[in-house]
Amino acid sequence: MMNHEMFAGMGFLWMLIVGAIFIVPTWRICQRVGYPGPLGLLIVVPFANIVLLYFIAFGPWKNVDK
After folding, report:
1. Which of 6, 20, 31, 60 is deepest in the core (most CB within 10 A)?
2. Cα 66 to Cα 33: distance, rounded to the nearest angstrom
């Protein structure tokens, strides 16, 4: 069997990369519609991410077209 100790820490690195791929756009979307950017961190919390998407989609947007 092959030993994969060289890639032992890669799980955490992949988790950070995938988290950044989802958090950064959600952060920007929250800011653009007028909500605080850190609200985008909820995208990585199970079930809270679904609530966040519905909140953004169907909630009142505080930011109007400029």
Report:
1. 31
2. 12
